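Workshop exercise sheet. Pairs work together: one partner reads the sequence aloud, the other fills in the structure field after running the prediction. Swap roles for the next sheet.
Pair: D.N. / O.F.
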Amino acid sequence: MPPSTRHLLRLLFGIVILMATGCAVLPRSEPSGAGAGEPVTVTFLVSGGPAEQAAYQAVVDRFNTLYTEIHVEIIGVPRMSDFITRLTTDFAAGAPPDLFMLNYRRMAQFYNRGAIELLDPYLKAGSTLNEADFYPEALDAFRNAAGELICMPQNVSSQVVYFNQDLFDQAGLPYPKADWTWEEFRQTAITLTLPDENDDTYPDQYGLGLEPVLIRMAAFIWQNGGELVDDPANPTHLALNEPAAREAIQFVLDLAQKDGVVPNYSAEAVASHPDRFLAGNIAMYVDSRVFTPTLRETVTFRWDVAPLPRGKQVANVLHSDAYCMASASTVKDAAWVFVEFALSEEGQTIAARLGRTVPSMRKVAESEAFLDPAQPPASAHVWLDNMEQNMRAMPRLENWNAIERTAAIELEQAYLGFQSLEGLLAGIEATAAEGFVPIK
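Structure field:
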């Protein structure tokens, strides 16, 4: 990426963050009534591709059929970067959606400014949902400093290795095992990367798709005994420059720079990692459960999932999104009724059957709705196993979104050979230098 492009991206990302920090929102209020007369409209902002949004729509459609006095209206934004921009802009304009689906990594920048209504009082006052029915790993990611629930999680996902079984079979390779190592992972990717025989300058097949973003690096860093920050419980600065973290980052960078098993700069410009996997041009791809509904609807090849390879220890990364309520909403009670339904056994079963979620409700996650043997992936239990394998949350800081954005730029440059490890770490450290503000 040319320097001018990199500077432009930094500027654009900076504008989004400045918008977020300048949000003018109404103060938190007590739960408000839904009103009477015509059906109350509850707006619900979500992000995701067509298959992912279809899962949300199915839950909404069922709710609208059952609760005729309330009408939930989905606002869909395909790209996450556009979603955050839209949400930030809506808050700044004083017209946010009543509900929105938000990842815990992006919550602090909104909650600390009073933009998100605390859902803990609603949960305690109701009788439909019970904290004990949900995985604590998901709940804890959405608590404030006092231990109260800010938002209610819909999923408790983590990272897996999606793999094309047909390509493994063609190469005569066994499918990945639960205890495979970094070196086995690397050698498998090398074997599955096929040389260019059609003279288009790219390998005819890549062994691995692994985007150069911090949330993909995190598990490797933890598995190597490193940390993202100095103190996960009370972080004050990044720890990416420590030896264990540097070694893990270099291992991932070498997959691209030395081994050539992931698409290079020009190849990535032609097609993204997930698009190449969907086209059968990448044999393995690291992602969370979010990729499942698209695979089910798109591909004809056989595929499954495997756990991440293990390093010096086992570790994985929590991926969890939650229903959040805007403090400026005027239909909070009606919005909460929908949240209760969406997170009930019926609501979570609908989403689970469509492949979008690893349900946050234990009963549904352990049911046939999620572990359906008739639907790929056959090894869906891997996500449940991950919860017993040192699954950790990313930091929850006001400026963490800015840090991740900068890291994505710098890591991409290093991944593609345009930046050194020292250079990328310096760039990330510069963004973090403003200091950490934890969730309040």
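Discussion prompt: Confidence is low (pLDDT under 50) at residues 1-35. What would you look at next?
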